Amino acid sequence: MYLHFFLYTVVTIVGCVILALPGVTFALFAGMLFGPWIGILACLFATTAGASLAFLVSRFFLKDAVKPMLEKNQLLKKLLFTQDDKSTMLILMITRMIPIFPYNLQNFAYGVTDIGFWRYTVFTFIFMFPGVSFFTIGAAGITAEGNRQTYFLIAGILAILVTVAGLYLKKRFLKEEKEDE
């Protein structure tokens, strides 16, 4: 079990930093390899480690080249380079909770922002939990010998809750942004 966990973590980190695999891939494999509960923890640990390493690569190797280009776009400048911690954390929460935003692009994009490493890492772990949970539980249902419908039902309910919560936050945030202008 420990060897599988270690190998999964190494493959996930390589997938995050070098191969740029879609984030959902890691949750699906975790659910099928480890089941729903250990799979969630394995996926959160490994993807947070991979996201953090990609963040550091971006921070140290891409920031000086990419940040000036991103700042030319007023919307990106406002969203990614604000001095308002509340806005930065809300953007991080929305992009991590709604798994339609490209996972690997986020990892590198946040590296060129001014968000601190530990703040990024801790909140990435927290905000990825809902999305990782529903994908991992759903994937565990594929390989489960019994109660498949229960896994799929739980995953579906979580998917709906996460999507509704994320869209609500996005709508509220964008509404506040428009009012500020």
Give a brief outline of the structure.
Helices cover 85% and strands 0% of the residues. It is mainly α. It has one domain.
Describe this structure in words.
The protein is mainly α and 181 residues long. The protein has one domain (2-180). The protein is 85% helix and 0% strand. The N and C termini lie far apart (54 Å). The model has no long low-confidence stretch (mean pLDDT 82).
Summarize the helices and strands and which ones pair or pack:
Elements: H1 2-19, H2 23-34, H3 36-61, H4 63-71, H5 74-80, H6 85-97, H7 103-111, H8 117-143, H9 148-180
Helix pairs in contact: 1-2, 1-3, 2-3, 2-8, 3-7, 3-8, 6-8, 6-9, 8-9
> Low-confidence segments, ≥5 residues, pLDDT <50?
none
- Which structural class fits the helix and strand makeup? mainly alpha
Strand content: under 5%
Helical run tally: 9
Average of pLDDT:
82
CA-to-CA gap between the ends? Answer: 54 Å
Q: Return the domain count.
A: 1
Instruction: Write the H/E string, N to C.
Output: HHHHHHHHH
The total strand number stands at 0
Radius of gyration: 17 Å
Please tell me what the overall shape is: globular
